Every structure is written in structure tokens, then in C-alpha cells.
Give the backbone structure.
Amino acid sequence: NILEDYQIKNENLQLYKQQYFAEIKGLHIKSYKNNLEECMIFEKLSLEKEPLNKIDKNAIKIMNLNLLIGYIPANETKEVSKIIKNEHKVFLFSVLDLDGYIDASVIIYY
């Protein structure tokens, strides 16, 4: 992947000692799925806590610029919250279309 090679070099990812993989939740919502379709594999994303989320006050949203593409799974927000308190970088890792069901994940370097 050319973009992956570029990001590893440009973002100095070799300096990060650990990686964390997380599924992107919420892709059954059409707007999130549409926003994801605008992304390329290994595109840089961001994670933002969403304490005012009505369903889960610990929610962490996954953003591409100002577009919401989904959420970190609820059972992983405690761990991911610890990771994002420190220096980290997030990228789209994979997208699979399984007969209309979209399975996607991010990789967090920290």
C-alpha cells in the first residue's frame, strides 16, 4: 500500500512502540458508512471522547476531518481512553464489504 508506506515514513510511525486494533462500530448508519466510503486505507483519522453521548457517556468517536465514521466498541473504550491520553496516531486499517455488511477497523499507534 503506497499510502501506508508514505504514512509510516511521514508520520514517523516507527517511533511508536505499540499498536492497538479496533473495530469501527456504527456502520449500519448510512451517514457513517457514506463518510467511511470517502476514506482510503491508511488515511489518518482522529479519536474524540464524546461525554455527552446519550447512549454511552464513555463513547469515543472515530473522525475523518469533521466527518463521523463510527465509534470504538463500548467494551474497548476504557482501554482506548488510556491510550489516547498520550501521544498517538490513528489510521483506517481495513474495510471489508461482506454482502452489504461493512466490517472496518482502525489501527492506533502509541
